[in-house]
Amino acid sequence: MTETKKNIKEFVGIVVSDKMDKTVVVAVERKMSHPLYGKQIKKTKKFHAHDEENRCKVGDVVRIREFRPISKLKRWVVVEILKQ
Q: What is the share, in percent, of the chain residues with pLDDT greater than 70?
């Protein structure tokens, strides 16, 4: 599962769903400042990631990497489980 792209995106997030077979939903949170007021805001985005061995459980902290399209929604793959 390696690709030759130079700038492959990687994110760290929390697994919020593992109900599908070989798929987990990972919520990635990022902080940004409001364009007008400057206050720090948390933004969350969910990614469907491929988990070949079904090892991830809800609440795990995982690293996901951009990958070729596997299905309609899956364009990410779980690289490692950082914390269970």
A: 94
Beta strands 23-33 and 10-17: pairing type?
antiparallel
The rounded Cα 26 to chain-centroid distance in angstroms is 4
Give the DSSP letter string of 29-77: EEEEE-TTT--EEEEEEEEEEE-TT----TT-EEEEEE-S--SSS--EE
Structure tokens belonging to residue 31: 């902080």
- Give the separation between CA 63 and CA 70, rounded to whole angstroms: 18
- The greatest distance separating any two alpha carbons of the chain, rounded to the nearest whole angstrom, comes to 45
Which amino acid is it at 77?
Answer: V
Residue type, 33: S
Whether the CB-CB separation of 55 and 84 falls below 8 Å is answered with: no
What was the pLDDT predicted at 5? 62
Average pLDDT over residues 20-34: 97
